[in-house]
Amino acid sequence: MERQAADYRTLSSLKNALHALKCFTPEEPELGITQIADKLGLSKSTVHRVMTTLAEEGFVRRDEQTHRYRLGLSVLSLGGIIMSNLEICREGQHLLEEFVNRFDETVHLAVLEDYATVYVSKLECKHPVQIATHLGRKNPLHCTSSGKVILAYQDSTVIDEVIRRGLRPMTPNTITHPDTLRQLLSQIRKDGYAFSQSELREGVHSVAAPVRDYTRQVIGAVTAVGPAARFTPEKMKSLAKTLVSISKEISHRLGYYERVR
Amino acid sequence: MERQAADYRTLSSLKNALHALKCFTPEEPELGITQIADKLGLSKSTVHRVMTTLAEEGFVRRDEQTHRYRLGLSVLSLGGIIMSNLEICREGQHLLEEFVNRFDETVHLAVLEDYATVYVSKLECKHPVQIATHLGRKNPLHCTSSGKVILAYQDSTVIDEVIRRGLRPMTPNTITHPDTLRQLLSQIRKDGYAFSQSELREGVHSVAAPVRDYTRQVIGAVTAVGPAARFTPEKMKSLAKTLVSISKEISHRLGYYERVR
DNA sequence: CAATCTTGTTTCTCTATGCGGAACAACGCG
DNA sequence: CGCGTTGTTCCGCATAGAGAAACAAGATTG
After folding, report:
1. Are A58 and B24 an interchain contact pair (Cβ–Cβ within 8 Å)?
2. Domain ranges in chain A?
3. Where in this chain does the record put each HTH iclR-type domain (chains A, B) (predicted)?
């Protein structure tokens, strides 16, 4: 009856399926029909059909015992394709490795997408104390070092839009005031790197430096994350220095050339 | 009109979309509407709707210039979830790292899926001469070292089925005779590891050892791949020794305990 | 620089498709 | 051993989605 304004250009059944896929998270990697149906507000029969189809194509895997579902290997394959074709990943991988070998801290490559930073590559340190992050995770721009450093170099319309959407407080440290943010972004442009100190999650610090492509636009960032205890101000400064040089190298490989005048 | 026997339990439109996603490969990461429509034998309008929906949900990304499509970051996110939840990956990662550090050769974790080996994890060596492989890629069982070593420990009905499906020759070296294969599999069970010498692709050799889970079933393999020039018989033997010990360690972490009595 | 392919996008129309509700089956729990 | 769960199947009706074809917007051509 009251269907949502039937958009002639999209497929509602496909949307259902994609939403179903997005229900899976690292915390909840296994779901049953009813759970998914509830999350999406769809009938069990519909979800059942969707999942059967997804399973047939290997996008989802059904446990014969519990009749619950997990993501299937087909999505891994797609993920692999993306990885091998995102230039920023290809070019950055080895440099990240060197970084981890030298500092033994976790590093990421992040890119801007849809007013969020998305981690597209990750290299873990061997420390017993690790920060749980995962590929593809979207984080807000205003409370992460990668987000801020990317945002700092965006067009002011982007910055305005981020502010308009609201600077949601995630911890007591989150920057929630537009003016403070603008001021900080200007400082970041001067420094060439950004910090985040417990602004997204309590006790998690990070440092990030901007990556540019051949159009000179900042499209992503290299960022190191770790626990506050290890990430002292001095250490973060020293990490920043290396991250900046790595980010320049990656930018270079993406066709960016420093000011020629 | 002559629709395909409308299966009441699956969604044809969703299938179309999933097939569309599967059109993307590392070799062809960017596709236009018409290309996809041709590949799938669907009308342009249908594909257009599918792609628009996929794009809206971030599963695909549309280049504003060329109006062609690439995979989007949503699939990366799903891939990340799978990676962090496939026990075999989690447990294997560090061991693979050690292997790469020691031998500087590319290693994979592969699992059995749908009568094929699928690479679920990969660590590249730094050699300039590399073998192009990618995550999620399915390869036949009879002509890869990982495939053979997994197959060797499967129920004989699985082996029969593989043979029934045909031992497709990929190179002059591919084993195409059922008896030869059976004999080799029995040898592999004795050795505890398998080789492949240019059986899948000319000039590409590999070595693999089996990984078991707590049910004692062989569910995957650790495998090293490289160019024939570097992979001499002696070297492969030595790699095999290490791979076997790594595979045992992974199996152990998956709850497998060696024969008790 | 027009003529002509070849893209992608939109419109339209008709019917098979996919929706939800309800009946059914298969567990697991007390 | 029944009751509250699950997941699965059936069914009937409205509508979503398939393709043909018109349309628009670049490319490519000579």
Report:
1. no
2. 12-76, 86-253
3. 11-73
**Backbone torsions φ then ψ of B32, nearest 5 degrees:** -100, 170
Residue of B nearest to A98 (CA): B126
For every residue of B18-44, DSSP letters joined together read HHHHHT--SS---B-HHHHHHHHT--H
Instruction: Summarize pLDDT for B24-36 with one digit per residue, the tens.
Output: 998 888 999 999 9
Cα of B233 vs its chain's centroid, Å: 24
| Separation between Cα atoms, residue A37 and residue A44, nearest integer Å | 6
Contacts of A14 in chain B (CB under 8 A): 13-14, 17, 50, 53-54
Q: Is A44 on the interface with B (CB under 8 A)?
A: no
- CATH topology of A12-76 equal to that of A86-253? no
Is residue A6 over pLDDT 50?
no
Among B10, B18, B25, beta carbon nearest to A81: B25
A249: how many CB neighbours lie within 10 A of its CB? 17
If pLDDT is split at 50, 70 and 90, which confidence band does B3 have?
Answer: very low
On the question of pLDDT at A260 being above 80, the answer is no
CATH architecture of B86-253: 2-Layer Sandwich (3.30)
* CA atoms of A248 and A181, how far apart (whole Å): 25
The reply to whether A58 touches chain B by the CB within 8 Å rule is yes
**Packing angle of the helix pair B44-56, B33-40 (nearest 10 deg):** 120
- Residue B250 in tokens: 């992974």
DSSP letter string, B120-140: EEEE----SS-----TT-EE-
- pLDDT digits over B169-198, tens only? 999 999 999 999 999 999 999 999 999 999
Residue pair B255/B213 in contact (Cβ under 8 Å)? The answer is yes
Q: Do A84 and B18 touch (CB under 8 A)?
A: no
Q: Which nucleotides of C are covered by protein (CB under 7 A)?
A: 6-12, 16-22
CATH class name, domain A12-76: mainly alpha
